[in-house]
Amino acid sequence: MDVMFSSVQHFCALYLVQCSLGLLAPESVGTCGSELPIWTQLVLHLLLGLFLLPLARAALTHRAPPPLAPPRRHAVLQRRPPRPTRSRPDLFGMERYEARLIDFLERERDDDDSSSSSSSTVSTSMLAITGARGVGKSTLLRLARTYYYQQRFFGYILYADAGQDGFTADALRGELARGVGWFRPPAAASTDHIATFLRSQSFLLLLDDVQAGGLGFDLADAGLPTTTTPLGPRQKVVFATRHESVCAAMGCADDEGNVIRMGCLGDDDAWNLFQYCVGGNIIDSNPMIKAIAKEMVGKCGGYPGALVRVGLSMSIHNQLESWIYADEVLSKNPPPGPGAIHQDNDDQGYPCLQSFMEEFGC
After folding, report:
1. What is the C-alpha to C-alpha distance for residues 237 and 203, in angstroms, rounded to an integer?
2. What is the rounded radius of gyration, in angstroms, for the C-alpha atoms of the chain?
3. What is the pTM of this model?
4. Which of 5, 195, 258, 311 is at a distance of 20 to 30 A from 89, taking alpha carbons?
5. Count of structural domains within the chain
6. Residue 101 contacts residue 139 (beta carbons within 8 Å)
7. How many CA atoms, within 13 angstroms, populate the side-chain half-sphere of residue 41?
8. CA angle 260, 264, 265 (to 5 degrees)
9. Which structural domain, as residue segments, surrounds residue 133?
10. pLDDT tens for each residue of 61-93
């Protein structure tokens, strides 16, 4: 079709050019059947040629479009799923905690279904994460929840905030029921129903912010085995608490290797975390600001919660005067040092930083 169209266009263009130049004999032009004089027909042909000349030029330069290329086949790369910290650049200094958590959760991942539950002990089924408020316990739990939910290493990922007011066995039972897809009132899901269902399932239970004294009830009251009845393969319980006394109350001990103590960051990790929270090029924009920033990081004592709060507060300040004033305020209200990192009397969060937060609106 394109070839035929191009040939017709070429013929018409040649005919019009010949008419315009008078190359055609007058008698041949007059055979069109018109009663007009010959020279009038020539003038009309000339005008028509001028009008159609752009079309003729386009026809002479016409090229058929190239054939459509077949769709590309993108290769699917088969590779090991990345570790969680690769997608979280703010998790500075948490690699060792992450490694221990992953080792605990995947310790029995390759066990076959024939493994008896009696071969599992508390040290392989329950893990405690302890440390002061703001060291990253909740972040580590959320990291595990997101990562293992995507990779489907466990049949069910169950999460509950044990620190909320009025958290009871009924509340945990309701969270477990909703976690396994039983969308009905918690009272309708009895302990026996949940225990019977979970006994044959793989699951990961994450309990955040367990208060002093533990949960105040036995996990069996919510439908889970206790320390006297170890969990089966791929059945894990991880809880986070600010109080070391909870670890023993929940059946975790240092000699069993199922306690992770999170503490302050090293100098390099603390500096990297602070820079990440400030963001942009504020620190590198002025050598004096960078020097003040290093002093502020030192005053935070490697305390992750303080580094994050102070860094986010300074992320909107790029004037040297603001940084000088912030350093003075921080000097009057320093965060707790490494010696206070595991104290149990930290329920108020960061009272020492309250003045700093009020000044800079974080």
Report:
1. 8
2. 38
3. 0.65
4. 258
5. 2
6. no
7. 17
8. 105
9. 94-106+124-261
10. 655 545 544 433 333 333 334 444 434 555 788
